[in-house]
Amino acid sequence: MIKKILILLSLWPLGLFAQINTERVMMIARNALYFEDYVLSIQYFNQVISAKPYLFEPYFYRGLAKINLDDYQGAEADCDEAIRRNPFVVGAYQIRGLARIKQNNFEGAIEDYRTALKYDPENLVLWHNLTLCHMQEEDYTEAQDDLAQLLKIAPRYTRAYLMRGEVYMKQNDTISALKDFDKAIELDKYDADCWSARAMIYLQQAKYKEAEDDLTQAIRLSVKNAGNYINRALARFHQNNLRGAMRDYDLALDIDPNNFIGHYNRGLLRAQVGDDNRAIEDFDFVLQMEPDNMMATFNRGLLRAQTGDFQGAISDYSRVIDEYPNFLTGYHYRAEARRKMGDAKGAEQDEFKVMQAQLDRLNNRTSNGKDEDVADNEAAKDEDDEGKTRKQSDKNIRNYRKIVIADDDEATQRYTSDYRGRVQNRNVVIKLEPMYALTYYERISEVKKAVHYYAGIDSLNLSKQLPKPLRITNMESPLTEEQVRYHFALIDSHTSDIVTDPRNALKRFMRGMDFYLVQDFDSSIDDFTQSILLDGDFFPAYFMRALVRYKQLDYKKAEAASENNRSNTSVQDKKEENVTAVDYEVVKKDLDKVIELVPDFVYGYYNRGNVSSALKDYRAALEDYDKALELDPEFAEAYFNRGLTHIFLGNNKQGIMDLSKAGELGIVSAYNIIKRFTDVQE
Questions:
Q1: With contact defined as beta carbons under 8 Å apart, do 573 and 624 qualify?
Q2: Angstrom distance (rounded) from CA 649 to CA 590
Q3: From CA 498, how far away is CA 534, in angstroms rounded?
Q4: Can you give the three-state secondary structure of 583-601, one letter per residue?
Q5: For 466, which DSSP code?
Q6: What distance in Å separates the CA atoms of residue 48 and residue 26, rounded to the nearest whole number?
Q7: The predicted structure's pLDDT at residue 677
Q8: Which of 578, 580, 579, 609 is nearest to 592 (CA)?
Q9: How wide is the angle at C-alpha 212 spanned by C-alphas 198 and 428, nearest 5°?
Q10: What does the DSSP assignment read for 390-418?
Q11: CB 304 within 8 A of CB 314
Q12: Is the pLDDT assigned to residue 9 strictly greater than 70?
């Protein structure tokens, strides 16, 4: 009987039919949501809804979790329920607006944002999203009104100038657009979008050197934006820098391997410099993406003929001629290829077609039917034949040699995907790389390939006592629905084992790990504490208790900041009292013990350095990062955090050296920070 009671107490979050502590379940659910464990958070919100279906909060937060999982219909339905229970919650309209945008229901989103602004008229996020919705609806007058109001509230809000500049571009007022983009750069010269926006104006004005300079600046600030390389390639092409343009297309395709414009234009440039075989590869790729692209087909035909593949060339020419029977250039090149293949009769037929068309043109005659339509279509586009570029939507076959540029709508819609909300706030804060944890699951990084190893953890894994091998990582992976069920079941199993063998420190640790993975931090701390009491030398329990306590403090600070955004300063002051230096000292004490027990455990020093940074004790943090790097000279995150710590102390030169090493080892964001503080140093 006692065993059953203990199991029930340990599994209170799962009691779908039993009485549950909804306040605590909500706290755990929001914990899971904050740490991006969306599937798990939904499981907890479901329990609260089952127990107290009249509350609005679980519906609202479940909607927030669903929108992060791209379940836009589900998110909208949950926000409907939240609003039905409490129509004055601004966040519910905000999330429902985002869900409606994702379903292309811009009218519904506009209605939500207008309603929310009645309750919170100075909310920048709401004005921002409302503006973008009006831009999507091409209601530029309303968008201008929105932006005027937004700039009254926040005259230094850079995105407002970028959006207004785009509205001016839509209205062909490039002078006003340029003024707004200049203002945006003045306000925030570290925003890559400001530079790339102004570069688009310069491209339109044929100021190619200025466009290249701005795009170079944008690339330095945002190295992973393929569009900036594509546009800089265009600026370089217009300055006859073909090699430079090809390098940019190479870089763009490294980032976005399926970029149509990158492959098509690189194919054209490779053909111009005689790199025929690789040009054919580019057009092959384009035709895999768009099998009916006749311009790519014709260009590939020309290249096949150049490389001696006359049969392949004839096949490509014939496809184009079938589609455009009045395209005389096609007949001319097919005749050449047929003659080289020994098909004199076929060549003569093509040459006769060309000669007949020329005679008809001299006599002002055209053929009837489809040929006439094509001829008229081509004649109507004669003006498009001027220049070196064509729009992507241009299907005039005579422009097959022209570099492709994005259509106007695509080129100017840089910010229409920049909707803001709790789920999409851009993190522009420079912050340390996160703490390391012991866990069973790790996110895979394509950039960082380091395998984190420690002999003591490896020995624990080899003992086969744990349900899964422990991993050392600071890139924890959220649980899937199946994993959630698995770890709740493990909690049940471990609880039974603990009742049978209450002095087993490892069993306590394992259940603490399960509670940690399902985001029940209080219960996990209790189990890690019991594990420590049973075995004071078991360092993983100290390490994980420190991590969980640190995460609790992180969550409390985030909640305080969020509350400050929603209410007055006095509430913020009251909340911040909950997170003090003493709280961090408790965390640090556990890490001190870890280092005492295993002085060669590099992650103990690293995590303690992060805690010292949180306490603004940067000298102590530097000592720990130094020790971590002494133990592991290839520890990328330690270089990154030590670099930032040097910068916090004003030692930019040393900080930049460390950040450079971190970037070299795979932390790409280091380069953006280097750029910022290089300017400061200069």
A1: no
A2: 26
A3: 12
A4: HHHHHHHHHHHHHHHCCCC
A5: S
A6: 7
A7: 73
A8: 609
A9: 55
A10: EETT---GGGTTSEEE--HHHHH-SSTT-
A11: no
A12: no
Backbone angles phi, psi at 256, to 5 degrees: -130, 85
Question: Would you state the structure tokens that stand for residue 80, as one six-digit string?
Answer: 């409907």
* Residue 481 to residues 41, 44, 361, 411, Cα–Cα distance (Å): 10, 12, 70, 40
Q: How far does the chain reach from its first CA to its final CA, in angstroms?
A: 73
Amino acid occupying residue 653: K
For residue 180, give the amino acid letter: D
pLDDT tens digits along 215-239: 999 998 888 889 999 999 999 999 9
Determine the residue type at 454: Y
Distance in angstroms (rounded) separating the CA atoms of residues 282 and 265:
9
Residue 432 CB-density burial (10 A; 0-12 exposed, 13-18 middle, 19+ buried): middle
The region that residue 473 occupies, defined by phi over 0 for left and psi between -120 and 50 for alpha, beta otherwise, is beta
Query: Can you give the C-alpha Rg of the chain in angstroms?
Result: 32
Angle at 98 between CA 443 and CA 164, to 5 degrees: 110
Mean of the per-residue pLDDT values for the chain? 86
Going 497 to 499 to 504 to 508, the CA torsion angle's sign is positive
- What six digits make up the tokens of 461? 């894994």
The Cα–Cα gap between 89 and 59 comes to 12
Which tokens sit at 140? 């530029």
Rounded to whole angstroms, how far apart are CA atoms 470 and 317?
A: 60
139: CB partners within 8 A, 6+ apart: none
Kindly provide the residue ranges of all beta strands, DSSP E only, lying in 308-412, ordered along the sequence: 389-391, 403-405
- Give the separation between CA 47 and CA 22, rounded to whole angstroms: 8
Q: For residue range 414-470, what is the model confidence (pLDDT) as tens digits? A: 544 455 554 333 333 578 999 999 999 998 765 555 778 899 999 999 999 999 999
Residue 189: is its pLDDT beyond 80?
yes
- Measured CA to CA in angstroms, residue 96 lies from 88, 91, 134, 135, 275 at distances of 14, 8, 17, 19, 52
* Phi, psi of 388, deg, nearest 5: -110, -5
